[in-house]
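User: Okay, second chain of the day. Same drill as before: sequence in, structure tokens out.
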Amino acid sequence: MRHRVVDDLMTRDVVTVQEETSFKEVAAMLAEQEISAVPVLDGSGRLVGLVSEGDLLRREARQADPEGRDAPEGSAADAVPHDEGGLGTVTAKDVMSSPVVTAHPGWSVVEAARAMDRQRVKRLPVVDEPGRVVGIVSRRDLLRVFLRTDRAIREEIEYEVLRQTLSLDPGAVRVHVVDGVVTLEGQVHRRSLVPVVERLCRGTDGVVAVDSRLTAALDD
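Assistant: Same drill. Structure tokens below.
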């Protein structure tokens, strides 16, 4: 069985900026490329941060109001003059989030999803062993595994899980898949094999849940 990994799902053509790229240039790039975040590289091409739309908005919110209205409470001390070219002097290094939570190409979908959930981020730059950015993976990318057809899921379970991995007789276990929910019916040789079948089916890409109705010929 081969599960899809980050390398299969990530976006490879990654738009990046340098530390000295101006605020305005970063904002324009996000708008033009229709992306919500961009990795920041230093002079040697090493990943040092990530600038998202949220980072830019937080910086903009700290600007003094050009019409003289009061700034939000608690922001006065951090206010930055909103003069001509004021944001042009702010760089990606000034607004980026750092350090960056990253993923590796060989990570499983589960590993990437857990990292996003644990760190409360929406995307992960993907780096290779030398630390170069080779892609970026988002929540939406990870959810693509659940877009597999029911037929594809059923065929993989029948052939790769039941026949190749477990060497079960064809027809011993019947597999039905509806909207990613797998129903297993039939009989296996030993009761200890039942949880193994269930676990392997749950680990199949695209499976949402497993409803096991399996019985066993021998209670071992």
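Helices lie at 6-9, 23-33, 53-61, 92-95, 109-119, 139-143, 150-165, 193-202.

User: Thanks, on to the next one.
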